[in-house]
Write a structure and sequence with these properties.
Structural class: alpha/beta
CATH class of the largest domain: Alpha Beta
CATH architecture of the largest domain: 3-Layer(aba) Sandwich
Number of strands: 38
Strand content: 15-25%
Oligomer: single chain
Strand order of the largest sheet: 8-7-11-12-13
Number of domains: 6
Shape: globular
Largest sheet: 5 strands, mixed
Length: 923
């Protein structure tokens, strides 16, 4: 290969002849110094920016060739180092990707160009320092990633092949040859084309690790060597880049090398390649002559920031505004807000807010109060908010725009070995629910999918690979509302209860149900002063090695339990299908597919979950005792079990209550011997579920018409479809039938404690009559002629659930708070009343439900705000100027009771006003 490269390099384009290898060896032998080689190279290399494609090899696309030519890189250097890639598998090999890692496919990256260099000591091709630029750059953390590097090699310098034998080896040996270090292969290629030794590094902060230079850079260091650091001309406004440059200079200087800083002047020519193309070789050589020592450049940086602060002081009266401007200038482009983790990041890494005040003092020489510093950092970061899971889902949806949704149909069968159809439904709905939680944070999903199976089957590994390591945690502890536990809930997409049986046994069941049912959590972030509400974006899963994990039948509907029937879960298959699975789930969600179980699935779930219920040793004794009784009390059972009164505590009471519920008994208040007492009765109702959403109105209550043998026990099927917050239109009152009416069927949620239906009854004598009337009513008509509640005329007085409480909300505006009240008029209608800070009021009545009521209030307030136009005092290069016709698009309250305002000018520019009133309403 070396012979071919040498022959190609020494090809005489004008005379169309080649020089033999022996001739090359003689010429190389005559070259007693690298200076000779460099001059010879410069004579052969002619800078050509005329976009000529005459000598373009077939391996490089025209667009890629012209891109490099326009950067001032010689044709020979381009030909030896650059190639166009059209095969995703080839690109996978270059980037050292195995195609099994999530988001590591290269299908959407082609076409792309790739530049690779050589080992500076052996002149062999290497992927160390390789750079790839896709025609369709991927979006990472909300920004396009222009250049990609090969994984597994770390960040390495790139040494381009010039076609000169041992060029870099001789450069290493001759310390008198200056080296220019640049960021990017094209910049290095442009400088090499001028005859200077130029090394490309991926970034100013790279090629250093724990204070040590990369081993390839160390080869060039030593006494007598001069390094020129030539980075883009915006380095003066990026404080972290300045610090990284100074650190690199420090490490180079420690080797005895001299370090100079080559400054690209301000202008459109941002980098060295742009400057060379725009101004030529002589202008670039003048930059080398006028380069500053690292000490001189450090002083210039300090002077720049002092002058910048003085300039800001002259233009901004507010200290907070000055601090914001300074920090934005230095850090603005590097700050981002991760909305999954509620976390501020700098350069893709979490920012330690406890150290931020100190960092500002050291880097900007300003003393900012700690809370103000954090407020400014958060404000700037939130201007560049991103959601990593949304980016991933949209990325895979783009890769697989028309997925086969049937891939979600049999996940439990293919991965877990279960042939039960409901288990496949569990898995499909779990994935769709996970997508829904990202796009509708806080949406209803209070179930947890639990894998039960032996150790080492890969249960936890399945969840980790499915959600992705960075979005998953198996460290969810007990279901508590502690800030540590809530922080986990709001930092990950998938959360696993490992060894779930221990959590279920330790935790009070009611508390566990409450934790799982919560869709919004109120807690204080570590850097915040106040508690805020955060809707959940995560889903809960679990694993267990035991088969008996449930001890409360009333709460079991929250657990979607799937036994693992395979020896081991095929994790390699999951790695191959993961992106397709999430793409299918994403499209299913976008198509409106629901993620909650329907009525039939809940009935089936109730039966299947019995296989996983624990068997209490007392259950057989209690079952035998209550078999022929119409009702019992807890005290009766304690007496039967020979438990003395002194031992009858709350723990034993809950234990007995759980057994009674498992035996299908429920607690009610019964009128006996002239007073009300709390007793347990066998449930005579067939409890089923119709899925109503929170706040829904169940106007029509369904009926199950069933025939009953004359000798068999009469059973009513109660179907109350609503859930928390629903309006069910006097269901119990509607069930007060006349003596001629038929047996009815009313809906009730299996998840609730079965006693809740009885305990909610009005404790008057009529309530007892209602119960007995229902339980003793006659059968329904045949199925083909069902009787509906809406057709029945009720008699007597029943219990009507109360309407939701009025909603009272305040919305911030530049003129003051908008006071908004939504009052329910009946089960369907609400009155909306808004009092605006300008003294006007607005009222309207509208058919709505509780979740939509708050949205309606917000919509009305936003419409009022959208009609207001402001005049804003805005700082420009010419000082303060009033900008008319602005609209307020955001108001953020501060800890001092003030507010920060964001306005948008008619030209689309965003103007920020901090805790002052530099604006006025235009009439």
């Amino acid at each position: 290969m070396k012979n071919n490269l040498l022959t190609a390099f020494l090809f005489n384009r004008n005379q169309s002849k080649t020089v033999s290898y022996q001739t090359v060896k003689k010429k190389v032998a005559r070259a007693t110094s690298v200076v000779y080689l460099t001059k010879k190279m410069h004579n052969l290399i002619k800078l050509d920016t005329n976009n000529s494609t005459t000598n373009r090899p077939d391996s490089i696309d025209i667009s890629h060739w012209e891109e490099w030519i326009k950067s001032g890189v010689d044709e020979k250097i381009i030909s030896l180092n650059v190639q166009s890639i059209h095969d995703s598998q080839e690109l996978d090999k270059i980037l050292n990707r195995n195609n099994k890692n999530r988001r590591k496919h290269s299908d959407n990256l082609i076409p792309a160009w790739c530049v690779s260099g050589i080992n500076p000591q052996s002149w062999e091709k290497t992927l160390e320092g390789v750079q790839v630029k896709s025609d369709n750059p991927p979006i990472i953390n909300g920004k396009p990633q222009k250049y990609l590097n090969s994984s597994g090699y770390g960040t390495s310098p790139l040494f381009l092949d010039l076609g000169i034998p041992d060029y870099w080896l001789n450069t290493i040996e001759d310390k008198s040859i200056p080296n220019i270090i640049l960021e990017g292969a094209k910049k290095a290629g442009a400088v090499l084309s001028l005859g200077y030794a130029a090394i490309s590094i991926p970034g100013v902060s790279t090629c250093r690790k724990k204070g040590r230079l990369h081993k390839s850079l160390q080869l060039f260091c030593g006494y007598g060597r001069t390094f020129y650091l030539a980075f883009d001309n915006d380095v003066m406004t990026k404080k972290p880049v300045q610090d990284a440059l100074l650190n690199l200079a420090r490490d180079l200087s420690a080797t005895g090398s001299k370090v100079m800083v080559l400054e690209i002047p301000p202008g459109e020519a941002k980098g060295a390649d742009d400057f060379i193309v725009a101004n030529g070789k002589e202008a670039f050589e003048n930059l080398i002559k006028t380069a500053k020592t690292i000490e001189e450049w450090r002083d210039k940086v300090k002077e720049f920031w002092l002058l910048e602060q003085e300039r800001i002081k002259e233009t901004k009266k507010s200290k907070l505004a000055r601090y914001t401007h300074i920090i934005n200038l230095g850090w603005g482009d590097m700050l981002r807000f991760n909305s999954l983790k509620n976390q501020i990041e700098m350069n893709g890494e979490p920012l330690d807010l406890e150290q931020v005040r100190l960092r500002l003092a050291l880097e900007f020489d300003v003393d900012v109060p700690a809370y103000d510093a954090i407020s400014i950092i958060e404000f700037l970061a939130r201007k560049q908010t991103y959601h990593p899971v949304q980016e991933y889902l949209e990325d895979v949806a783009q890769q697989h725009p028309e997925p086969d949704l049937s891939i979600l149909d049999n996940l439990a069968t293919r991965y877990l070995g279960s042939s039960e159809p409901l288990h496949n439904i569990y898995m499909r709905k779990t994935l769709i629910a996970a997508v829904a939680r990202i796009y509708e944070p806080g949406c209803q999903h209070d179930a947890a999918t639990i894998f039960i199976g032996k150790q080492y089957a890969g249960k936890s590994s399945f969840w980790r690979k499915l959600f992705g390591r960075e979005f998953f945690s198996d460290q969810l502890g007990e279901a508590t509302k502690s800030e540590d536990e809530l922080a986990k809930v709001h930092q990950f997409w998938g959360l696993e209860w490992s060894e779930f049986e221990t959590v279920y046994r330790k935790k009070d069941v009611s508390s566990l149900k409450k934790f799982m049912s919560a869709s919004v959590d109120a807690f204080r972030l570590p850097y915040a002063r106040t508690t805020k509400e955060y809707p959940r974006q995560s889903v809960l899963v679990g694993t267990s090695n035991e088969s008996e994990i449930l001890n409360d039948p009333t709460g079991s509907r929250r657990f979607w339990i799937i036994p693992i029937l395979k020896e081991s879960i095929p994790l390699e298959l999951l790695e191959q299908e993961r992106d397709k699975l999430w793409s299918a789930a994403y499209h299913a969600y976008k198509n409106g597919e629901q993620w909650e179980l329907d009525r039939d699935s809940r009935l089936k779930q109730s039966e299947l979950n019995k296989d996983f219920e624990t068997q209490d040793p007392w259950q057989e004794k209690i079952s035998a005792y209550i078999r022929d009784k119409s009702y019992v009390t807890i005290e009766d059972i304690f007496y039967h079990l020979s438990i003395e009164p002194s031992r009858q505590d709350m723990g034993l009471t809950k234990r007995v209550s759980a057994i009674l519920r498992q035996l299908n008994w429920s607690k009610i208040r019964k009128y006996l011997n002239g007073c009300w007492v709390r007793v347990w009765e066998e449930v005579k109702t067939k409890v089923t579920f119709l899925g109503g959403s929170r706040g829904s109105s169940q106007d029509n209550v369904s009926f199950d018409a069933s025939t009953i043998d004359g000798d068999s026990e009469k059973t009513n099927s109660i179907n109350l479809g609503g859930s928390r917050g629903s309006s069910q239109n006097n269901v119990l009152e509607d069930t007060l039938l006349s003596s001629e009416s038929h047996n009815t069927s009313v809906a009730h949620d299996t998840v609730s404690n079965s006693s809740e239906l009885h305990e909610d009854r009005v404790m008057i004598e009529a309530a007892q009559d209602i119960q007995e009337n229902i339980l003793n009513s006659i059968p329904l008509d045949p199925p083909q002629n069902p009787t509906f509640i809406s057709e029945v005329k009720n008699k007597g007085t029943g219990f009507a659930p109360s309407l939701p409480a009025p909603l009272k909300i305040k919305f911030a505006s530049p003129l003051g708070d908008v006071k908004a009240i939504a009052t329910p008029l009946d089960s369907k209608s609400w009155e909306f009343h808004l009092i605006y800070p300008d003294g006007t009021e607005q009222r309207e009545e509208k058919i709505s439900d509780e979740p939509k009521a708050s949205k309606r209030l917000k919509s009305l307030a936003q419409k009022w705000q959208a009609n207001l136009t402001y005049r804003v005092n805005h700082i420009t290069q010419n000082g303060y100027q009033w900008v008319e016709g602005c609209k307020c698009i955001d108001v953020t309250r501060t800890s001092r009771g003030g507010a920060n305002y964001t306005f948008k000018s008619p030209t689309g520019e965003e103007i920020y006003i901090f805790e002052n009133k530099d604006f006025e309403l235009m009439q």
